Every structure is written in C-alpha cells, then in structure tokens.
Amino acid sequence: MGQRTRIGAAAALGQLQGWRVAEGRDAIVKSYTFKSFSAAWGFMSRVALKAEQLDHHPEWSNVYNRVEVTLATHSAKGVTALDIELAQFMDSLV
C-alpha cells in the first residue's frame, strides 16, 4: 500500500493520540495550544518545513496561541499514511 492510498480517518486514529475524525469528511483534526503566539508560530514554521519535504501540506489556522489542524490527502479524497506521518511529526514537536 502506497503513502497516498486512502486508509480512512478511523484507521488513522488507532495510531495517533488526541486526534479526532473531522465532521462530514474523511480527515483528521487536532487543536494545539501553546504558551504564546511566537511558540505557535514556531511550531507552524517547523511543520511547514516538514510539509515541504513530504510534499504534503496541512489545512490549518492560527489564532494567537492556538493552531487548528486538519489533515487529509486531497488526491486520495481522504486520510493516508502521509497524514499519519505528518500528524506524528506534529505531535513530536509538543
């Protein structure tokens, strides 16, 4: 099975902590809270570098010290191993 083969959000959750299934689509979501805006921005910068390396980019938003993340592989129309890899990387930073 390739990295861009759809495995589904429910299967992905078995390998992740604190993530949940997105409402209305095959995607996973998580909210991160940091001590400050610059800590949140630093997290996003590190994730952006990894996302470029993987050629796989998150949907996300930042409001002050919070970062809301949604992961899905658009070409697969759902969650793949790439989403799990990026989610695990994000979790390793906090």
Main attributes of the structure:
4 strands; alpha+beta; Gyrase A, domain 2; single chain; 94 residues
What does this structure look like?
With 94 residues, the protein is an alpha+beta fold. Helix content is 37%, strand content 20%. It has a single domain, classed as Transcriptional coactivator/pterin dehydratase (Gyrase A, domain 2), CATH 3.30.1360. Strands 1-2-4-3 form a 4-stranded antiparallel beta sheet. The protein is globular and about 35 Å long. The termini are far apart. The model has no long low-confidence stretch (mean pLDDT 95).
Short description:
The protein has 94 residues and is α+β, with helices and mostly antiparallel strands. It is built from 3 helices and 4 strands, in the order H-E-E-H-E-E-H.
**Helix content bin:** 25-40%
CATH class: Alpha Beta
Mean pLDDT: 95
Please tell me the total number of domains.
1
* Low-pLDDT stretches: none
Q: How big a fraction of the residues is strand?
A: 15-25%
* N/C terminus separation: 29 Å
How do the helices and strands follow one another from N- to C-terminus?
Answer: HEEHEEH
- CATH T-level topology: Gyrase A, domain 2
Principal-axes geometry comes out as globular
Number of DSSP-assigned strands: 4
- Which homologous superfamily in CATH is the superfamily? Transcriptional coactivator/pterin dehydratase
- Across the major sheet, the strand order is 1-2-4-3
Taking the sheet with the most strands, its summary is: 4 strands, antiparallel
CATH 2nd-level architecture: 2-Layer Sandwich
Radius of gyration: 13 Å
The assigned structural class equals alpha+beta
Number of helices: 3
